[in-house]
Amino acid sequence: MLGWGKKRRREEVVAAPVPDAWLEAIRPWALFDELDDDEQAQLLDIVKVLLAEKNWEGCGGLELTEPMRAVIAAQAALLVLEIPHDFYEESDSVLVYPTDYVVPHAVHRGGGIMSEGEVRSGEAWYRGPVILSWERVEQGFTDPEAITNVVLHEFAHRLDMLSGVQNGTPPLERRVEPKEWAAVMKRAFDTLCKAVESDQETLIDPYGASNEVEFFAVVTETFFIEGNALEEDDRDLYDILRAYYQQDPAARYRAAWGS
Questions:
Q1: Which domain holds residue 198?
Q2: Better pLDDT: 1 or 5
Q3: Would you say residue 126 lies in a domain?
């Protein structure tokens, strides 16, 4: 159970008004604009708590301002808008680099070990930080043509980790029948893999064919960003994600844009 002190602090945080600078930063986001008034208010309450409770740090010389933090928190908040959550309690820090960053790793070659690097735009560590590239955050937030979103992707990984095992199946908590989830997700994953292998164009980012873990994160992006198209392309996959997230992005899109 949530401690009395933390519960009281959260109530105080939520009761505070939303700074104008946060609203100015968040309002251009198309997915925020598609929420109704109650949903927007609920999302902003989650943003308040995330900004108050997480350690937010700019890395690589980045000055991470309050509006920038609000932009990231708003996208993370969308995932848990309608499901039980504890504000990503297992992740206490959000680290943000200006652009894609290099993660060094050791590679064994010949008679020794050479240090090489892998370029990344984001990652989520189990019981650790979420790390993001601000350049990628901005791209997913402001570009109306963007079909990927690094914040949705990495925080979907955080949801997947809640069971203690990252396997592409987050805790379903009776919202979805596990056997149905497994069958739909496996069929959709296999379909994507076959399409990628044959160089077919796909609605879902081909990176989702890497493995089941990345597939869940990638289809989460597609569900929220291209929900209307996903509903038409794969109704079973759309419906299983709608049941899990308890949201209907396709209906929101139609209500907002009349199509």
A1: 167-259
A2: 5
A3: no
> H/E/C letters for each residue in the chain?
CCCHHHHHHHHHHHHCCCCHHHHHHHCCCHHHHCCCHHHHHHHHHHHHHHHHHCEEEECCCCCCCHHHHHHHHHHHHHHCCCCCCCCCCCCCEEEEECCCEEEEEEEEECCEEEEEEEEECEEECCCCCEEEEHHHHHHHHHCCCCCCCHHHHHHHHHHHHHHCCCCCCCCCCCCCCHHHHHHHHHHHHHHHHHHHHCCCCCCCCHHHHCCHHHHHHHHHHHHHHCHHHHHHHCHHHHHHHHHHHCCCHHHHHHHHHCC
Let me know if residue 200 belongs to a domain: yes
pTM: 0.92
Residue 238 lies in a domain: yes
Q: State residue 116's pLDDT score.
A: 54
Please count the structural domains in the chain: 1
pLDDT (tens digit per residue) in 159-218: 999 989 999 999 999 999 999 999 999 999 999 999 999 999 999 999 999 999 999 999
Domain of 221, CATH number, reads 3.40.390.10
pLDDT band at 106 (very low <50, low <70, confident <90, very high): very low
Please report whether residue 176 resides in a domain.
yes
